[in-house]
Hints:
mainly alpha; five-stranded mixed sheet; disordered C terminus
Amino acid sequence: xSVAAYCIFCYRQIGTSxxxxxxxLPWNDIILSSTSSCLLSACQNSYGLAKTEPGGGGCGAxxxxxxxxxxxxxxxxxxxxxxxxxxxxxxFITYEVLSLKKLLQIDTQAIHQEKLxxxxxxxxxxxxxxxxxxxxxxxxxxxxxxxxxxxxxEAKIFRRPFNEQFSTFDGEDHxxxxxxxxxxxxxxxxxxxxxxxxxxxxxxxxxxxxxxxVAQTCDQRTAIGLARSKDIDLRFFLPPPPLPKIKNDYPIExxxxxxxxxxxxxxxxxxxQYFTSLALRESSQTLAAQRGGLWCFGGNGLPYCExxxxxxxxxxxxxxxxxxxxxxxxxxxxxxxxxKGGLQLLQRIYQLRKDSAKIQRNIIRIIGNMALDERLHSSxxxxxxVSVLAEVMKSPHVIQSSHASRxxxxxxRETVKEKYPDGVYVLHPQYRSSQPIRADILFVHGLLGAxxxxxxxxxxxxxxxKKALEGEENYSQCWPKTxxxxxxxxxxxxxxxxxxxxxxxxxxxxxxxxxxxxxxxSNELLDKLRAAGIGDRPLVWVSHSMGVSVARSSSQKxxxxxxxxxxxx
Length: 569
């Protein structure tokens, strides 16, 4: 605006100067100059800068021709200055817009760093493109390709495995190691796969997102192998998938009852029918109690009741789970349980009943039985049970950890060729180990015993035995697992469990009398031991009380001679 004002000021000085000599102009130039002067006068009048001579007759009146030429010249000057101003203003506005855009631009590197906190990325790389466009980078890339081809050719000629460390470059060491190990976990060579899983399990210095990367990218076989690795970091596993919410007025025991009703009820083993009818009967009593009905005592009914109108839901769930344990021993019923969403239902109950060791133990027992069928392994893994079993393996309670160990051993078809039916528990080794097994030791409990309770150190009276309380940290809940395993790591230690009740009052299945005979129990135990691979190595029997008779009967009925070299203790 200051430049425009200066131009107008100059124009006024020229317009008020003295008279000039006349020059002859063509007629059309005079018209043009008159028109231009009119326009200029209009501009002057609009800004209040023009002087009007008295007696003026309008645009171009009484103006000398020489003055009009100067006015035309000044108009051209003004046009040039105005154009320059417009062009400069356009450039200035453009500059301001670009500067404002730059100021408002978001820093993508900051966003990238924020994403790393909550997302899993394959690899962290620099955002500077210049690092990947230089001559040095291209040269390194070509040299890497050439070296790789040479090494591949050499490996083929000498028939040696190719070193996969040459398959990546320009990455941080810990990032490359992670992806190399994941790739090796899918190798066709079994030894390479096992070593890769072991190397993964031994890493304890990674960041959370790297553990998350392994959890999201590893396959089913690798996840099971990690779960069976000692002192494994639980960040290697994804949590169980979220389950849909259920209505508050729809209790869990009703879902268990519907699942039991959907299972086959004909052509079953008498014990399966007994447990199923018992669970359904108690569920019916629960419904009647909720409606204000009377609760009948007697038979193998519920042991207690909180009030006369309420039966503990936890107790009813336990009855239903015991029935499902019996059903899970039948392969065709396992398919039905999986098809009816039983794995997800069991996962829900497990999460809701974390304060009940009995319920959790029965659930893991069902998973261990279903894992005997390899067709259900993928469904078990998808339901999130690998992470649950890996966590239970760390439990200080030997019963809980042994149930989880059996389930994972049945899932692990990579290193375990044996299968462990219900009632056969591996006390050692419970994890993957490179230690070769030289012999088996089989523990058979006696009358009214159990697979773990019989082999405890001793009962501690917390009120009287102060010395025992002081050494409670060294107390062994199962000395074969605690002491014998540490002294003889080359042994496979197995403990079995069977029904030893001699009367129908406390029998697990009192519907058939012949089940109480030693002959029946020894035959049943023999089938389970064969499935567990007992007899493939030298065997030592450790039996107590009634277990001696069962062990001797099993050895005598072994038609295949699997136990000929065994010794009873």
